[in-house]
Amino acid sequence: MKHPRKVWCAGISSGATTLVEGAAGTGKTSALDEAAAMWEERGHRVIRAHGSELDRELPFGIVAQLFEPVLDEGVDVPPDALGALRMTTPSPDFAVLHAVYRLAVKLAGDSGLLVVVDDVHWADAPSLRWLAYLALRMRRQPISLLLSIGADERCDDPSFGEVVNQPTCERVVLGDLDDAAAAELAARVYGGAVEPAFVDACLAATDGNPQLTARLLRAMSDDGVPPRAASAWRAAEYGTFVRGEVVLGRLRRRPPKVVAAAQCVAVLGPDPHPAVLGELTGMGAVELADALRTLEGIGALGAPVRAAVLDDMPPATRCDLHLRAARSLRNHGADDRAVAEQLLETPPGADPWAGEVLDSAARDAVSRGEPDAAARLLWRSLREPQGNPARAFRLLGTAELVGGLPGATSRLREAFQSSDDPVEQAQTAIPLAIALHAEQDPAELTSVLSSAEARVDGPLAVRLREHRLMHAFGWAEAVPATVVPEDEPVNILYRASTNELDAPAAVELTMRVVADRQDAMSRIAAATTLSIADRGDDAIALMDKVLQQEHAPVVRGLAFLYRSNAHRRNGDLQAGRTDAEAAEPLLRDEKRWPTVSAMYATLCVDLLMEDNRVDEAEAVLDKVCSEGVRASWAMAGVLAARGRLNIVRGDARTALADFLAAHEHAARWPFRNPALLPWRAGAALACAALGDGERARQYADEELARARAWGAPRMLGMTLRAAGRVNSGAAGRALLESAVVVLRTSSARLELARALTDLGVVLRRQGDTSTARGHLRDALDLAKKCGSAALSARAHAELVATGSGPRRMRQTGPTALTPTEHQVANLAARGRSNEEIATTLLVPAHAIEGLLSGACRKLGVSGRLQLPEVLDLAD
What we know:
Layout: H1 3-11, E1 17-22, H2 28-41, E2 45-50, H3 61-73, H4 79-85, H5 94-108, E3 113-118, H6 125-137, E4 143-150, H7 158-164, E5 169-173, H8 179-190, H9 196-206, H10 210-222, H11 234-252, H12 256-268, H13 274-281, H14 285-297, H15 303-312, H16 315-331, H17 336-343, H18 354-367, H19 371-381, H20 389-403, H21 408-418, H22 422-438, H23 442-454, H24 459-472, H25 489-497, H26 503-513, H27 520-532, H28 536-549, H29 553-570, H30 573-583, H31 594-610, H32 614-624, H33 627-630, H34 635-649, H35 652-666, H36 679-689, H37 693-710, H38 713-726, H39 729-743, H40 749-765, H41 769-786, H42 789-801, H43 819-829, H44 834-841, H45 845-859, H46 867-874
Parallel strand pairs: 1-4, 1-5, 2-3, 3-4
Helix pairs in contact: 1-2, 4-5, 5-6, 6-7, 8-9, 8-10, 9-10, 9-11, 10-11, 11-15, 12-14, 12-15, 12-16, 13-16, 16-17, 17-18, 18-19, 18-20, 19-20, 20-21, 20-22, 21-22, 22-23, 22-24, 23-24, 25-26, 25-27, 26-27, 27-28, 27-29, 28-29, 29-30, 29-31, 30-31, 31-32, 31-34, 32-34, 34-35, 34-36, 35-36, ...
């Protein structure tokens, strides 16, 4: 708001030229108005003109505007000047230019003259020639020249260069409003004080543009919006409207071809296809480039303006443009998503291929995790006379299922029942089975998959059998009578779960076939097999691939869930917690996904107990025990988790009842692999705590035999540890020593820390405090590194009980980092941002800051800038 006075000060010098530059809306015209008013207040004469695109076509059009009031006053005009002032002289010869100049000198007299031309870049060539003539000769006259030009405009006429390149020409660049100027403007509009937060919001909504800010404030004031912080949020809404209206007004003053280009850009959206835009506008490359440059200069390419242009178009014109755009995009090879966006704005029946394109775009939207967008496309597809209603209903139901929208099951059931095509029906059966699983209807689920399978063969029949196997993990009633081919990951998981395969065989088969499987279900099944077989790193790598390729919320939630569990089994509790947090919002609807909810609850309970958050763990268990979960196989895991929680609480009797209930529940299924449900090991510990040593050893021996048969180091080590705890004397010590040996070959570092702790306790009680102390120190180091507060506290207490306080723990340096912290620190040391690290590691962005802070603390540095040196020293 201080610029006009600066302009005035620059313009009072006789013979001076001032050029005011500024983007649209920065107040160029207002600045010139105020300067002119101040000149007139001091008794000086002002003549002025405002350039427009039409003036370029009128010889001496600007000059005629300047001197029109003079003609009306009856001032004596030199004869040679009359032709220019009446725009009848086509060319600016010397006599004409000089005659008009002498008229300006006459008007200046003794008081002075200010010649003002707004938007001089639109001036015609003869007028520019006269302005150059004036600028060169007015230095000894009481005449000043004040011009304005848009910041994004240019004037290539040599005469303009002669004017502005003189040493006496001063350039004044208008900028955005600062806080003080904006507050002053707001107070003037509202007639009183305004709160700073309100002013800040208005500035943000208009990017500080003075014209937009003034209009925004007037609009809000007229609508009664109070200038308080509580109303600040409304500034963005008003800003969008005002910006569109202001630029739309500028656009209406442009030639028809520029308006047509704006309409086509509005229809095509940001970054329009060049060939398509040229085809829609009917312009050549050079003409189109000029039009786009004009649109950019007036700010007509932004989203608010595009929306305003669309609203301003007649409906028939807009519809025709969308239809032409759809056809042109398709002809130029654009993807179905872009074509479908145009079809949404057109009436049905125009093209026979429309339904197919809309369906394809809907499938893509589902894969991206955008069910609402998919539903919108499919409802439009259903209106196409050449469309496939059964297919559209299948896709619509799938989209609603993925998005948790109501009506998915009925929509899919209708598509399944109305289809006469066996392939279409089989493709519908798969999402319908998932919906029926969520609604706890195993009978209809089995019927749907079986009837669909009977009508097809080949890969599609295999997929149906795979789904029957996967649903078998939900209900015993869904166990299939048919068999999936042995080289399918789902079949390998099923056979591993039923003890038909041991761990080495299951791993060998899985690793052999999974490389060729690209679908998420196969990878999740393979990751489950690898995880229970103690191949956590391979399981994590598979889930990384799923997260890289899949966008559907439920699939991503499952990938985070399984990856979290693999991290937990490996002993990286921090990574497990991070992934569990990422999975929670994607899997929180317990009624829709009871099996998954139970699995998630079991995982959370184990993670919370490692943090000594026992009450929170109990609350999770109470919440998940709904009727839907009780019907699922995963309820056995919930019951076993409750048993582990009661062991921690010291309630061995209730814990034993929980473990036995878990066994009883799981007995309805054929899954006997102890790695899925190690209930006997838990029951053994509960019996030992109750003083029933014989029964405890019986449970431990049975679990140990099953663990040896399975052959995975983690499961075997855990069972050896349980057996060591329920056996006394040398036998117990030997079993615990064996557990340590076995677990050292495993990736399960947390289980190794438990075994070392238990062995240290036994050795201390047997009097071998020196050896006990070494094991307990190692256990404490591992527990700290894994992030288990509960085990760290126990190992620390047992170490103190040996008679020696703990040595200085290795809580600093690279060896103290968890694997995930190490990855984060290394990427940060290489200059990656938090967002880039999150993308690389496939974890939520908000988790990176905590991981990085923990890594810096352990490495003894204050921030990421010091990481390269510390990590280099470590390497």
